[in-house]
Write a structure and sequence with these properties.
There is one protein chain. The chain is an alpha+beta fold. It is built from 10 helices and 17 strands. The chain has a 9-stranded mixed beta sheet with strand order 9-8-5-10-15-12-16-14-13, sandwiched between helices. Strands 1-2-3-4 form a 4-stranded antiparallel beta sheet, with helices on one face. Strands 6-7 form a two-stranded antiparallel ribbon. α6 crosses α9. The longest helix is centred in the N-terminal third of the chain and has 21 residues. The N and C termini lie far apart (64 Å).
Length: 332
């Protein structure tokens, strides 16, 4: 008897072949079928089709999508952000922060980028569309190399824009992308927190999500004076090196109320179950829907949520002081 099995997030199925090589029992999550096939050639064709179907099932569950909330008004950068999105503030060599995080997504194997923007920030989406007329003009001047890396990035990903009509928080921004999410898991990436690392930070999360079949939060240790500026996790046990089981997430706690010094750093791989939680969480005291509140509800519902301590250097470009420090560091 030969047993061939395959499992992914949605399906479990296996093939049992009796020793006579005639009778195949194809068993799945909901049904069992007995298939009798005579003749070696037909048996080989059947086995080939089985492996082909298995390949497509497994590939269909790859994490390929990422949501990037970028609808904020950028008030701390005003008056510049009155007409220019904050995410266009350059970090190094003319490269804006939005390109840094989209490039991280692409380097992590994510190909479908959903930018959640406000009505005045559609230019963020256009930035990732190839401008053939501009390319032609630059080529005649021998200056096409200025756009070479950006053009390569644009060819490797698909970017769509989704409008967030009101500034109702990170949870609401993710909810705006719901109708475009097609897989069991998807990424969420904040544009204010570029990370320099050997392995892309989002790739580190995806690897953990695939290993444990769970939602994963990116965390790093922060000093006591910064705890109240982040969401902070509570955790119980360590699953693997730098991987923890999360029991709660607290958004911007006071130092004395913080359950740990492991802060959430703007990257997630989330199960689509998060949308059920987003539908029921209440408004925060600031009048926003926090993604961390929905993750806390996910945990209360018994869904597995892990934290991965990221290997890499975290930067913050969310206010002028931190942006300047980031630029200074990267230009050293």
């Amino acid at each position: 008897m030969i047993v061939i099995s395959s499992r992914n997030n949605k399906y479990f199925f296996f093939l049992v072949c009796k020793s006579n090589l005639h009778d195949f029992y194809l068993c799945g999550t909901k049904t069992t079928r007995v298939v009798t096939i005579k003749g070696r050639v037909m048996q080989q064709i059947f086995l080939g089709l089985f492996f082909l179907i298995q390949f497509f099932f497994v590939c269909a569950d790859d994490i390929m999508q990422v949501v990037i909330p970028a609808a904020g008004l950028g008030t701390r950068f005003m008056p510049m952000t009155k007409s220019v999105p904050k995410e266009f503030v350059h970090i190094k060599d003319g490269t804006p922060s939005i390109e840094y995080v989209v490039r991280e997504a692409a380097d992590s194997g994510l190909t479908d980028v959903i930018l959640v923007v406000s009505k005045g920030k559609q230019s963020l989406v256009e930035y990732f569309k190839i401008d053939h007329a501009l390319n032609a003009f630059l080529e005649t001047r021998g200056k096409l190399h200025y756009l070479e890396k950006l053009n390569e990035l644009c060819l490797s990903i698909s970017v769509r824009g989704v409008i967030q009509n009101a500034p109702l928080g990170t949870g609401h921004a993710v909810m705006c992308a719901r109708e475009y999410i097609t897989g069991d898991y998807f990424g969420v990436l904040y544009p204010d927190n570029p990370i320099v690392s050997d392995v892309p930070a989002m790739k580190q999360l995806i690897d953990v999500a695939n290993m444990f079949d769970a939602s994963v939060i990116a965390v790093q240790e922060v000093s006591e004076d910064l705890v109240s500026a982040y969401g902070v996790i509570a955790y119980e046990e360590q699953y693997a090196e730098n991987v923890y089981r999360v029991t709660d997430v607290v958004e911007k706690p006071k130092l004395e109320d913080a359950p740990s010094n492991l802060a959430v750093i703007g990257r997630y791989v989330l199960s689509v179950d998060i949308f059920d939680s987003l539908e029921i969480i209440p408004l925060s005291l600031t009048g926003e829907y926090w993604l961390t509140d929905a993750i806390a509800d996910l945990i209360r519902c018994g869904k597995p949520v892990l934290a991965c301590r990221i290997n890499g250097k975290l930067f913050d470009t969310g206010n002028p002081k931190n942006w300047f420090e980031t630029v200074a560091y990267l230009h050293e």
